[in-house]
Write a structure and sequence with these properties.
Elements: H1 15-22, H2 25-35, E1 39-43, H3 48-56, E2 64-67, H4 73-82, E3 84-85, H5 93-100, E4 103-107, E5 110-112, E6 117-122, E7 136-142, E8 146-147, H6 150-162, E9 170-174, E10 179-180, E11 188-189, E12 196-202
Parallel strand pairs: 1-12, 2-3, 2-4, 4-7, 5-8, 7-12
Antiparallel strand pairs: 5-6, 6-9, 10-11
Length: about 210
């Protein structure tokens, strides 16, 4: 019995590639994000703190929970002064803090231009509940982490593993605020998670 040759199968061609020919990857991501009801703020690293202050104005510190690892010095100082921070040492208390929080702030590891999806690699010091339980989810998105689609995202994660780098067992792909049309076919936003999702895109050239 002869062994059958395995054929190379090409995946479907996405319209995102043709869109990139006339628009920046960032712009394609923004247009996709608007379609999924995510709110968009474009800013620079220098002006990021001002944008965050505008969003949280009037919200008590104990109602803001952040889960960001490896922030810049200025952002780290702001988080220390204006948020409760996810702390692995606190154990289940982190979940309670997330349930009580009005705002959750996270830093995305990748973003998919095709669908407006953000990718969060959740691990010990980056709690998943911060993106699920608060009423408002703020996602900080450096422009350099935007990739065309899921294919490039998975390729990057695969390369990390090949290089011996660890990735967490929990990888979340979040596409805007929670949506459900299960109830009498009426669209309900926020039934399974945040009512609002705010993407803050950080770009030196904005």
């Amino acid at each position: 019995m002869t062994k059958l040759a395995r054929k190379q199968i090409e995946g479907p061609v996405s319209s995102v590639y043709s869109a990139i020919e006339t628009n920046s990857l960032k712009q394609v991501f923004i247009e996709s994000a608007k379609l999924i009801r995510a709110e968009i703020i474009e800013t620079t690293p220098t002006n990021l703190i001002n944008e965050l202050n505008n969003i949280i104005e009037g919200t008590p510190v104990n109602e803001i929970l952040s889960s960001i690892h490896g922030a810049t010095d200025s952002l780290e100082t702001w988080l220390d002064n204006n948020t409760n921070k996810w702390n692995p040492i606190l154990g289940d208390q982190n979940i309670t803090n997330a349930e009580r929080a009005k705002i959750g702030i996270t830093y995305c590891d990748q973003a998919l231009a095709e669908s407006g999806t953000v990718v969060l690699l959740n691990e010990n010091n980056k709690g998943r509940s911060v993106s699920l339980l608060p009423e408002i989810h703020i996602v900080l998105i450096p422009v350099e982490v935007i990739v065309p689609r899921l294919k490039e995202s998975m390729r990057d994660l695969h390369e990390r593993v090949k290089q011996g780098k660890s990735i967490p067992s929990c990888v979340n792909y979040i596409t805007g605020p929670s949506n459900s049309a299960d109830i009498e076919s009426y669209l309900v936003v926020g039934v399974h998670g945040p009512l609002r999702t705010i993407y803050i895109i950080i770009d030196e050239e904005t």
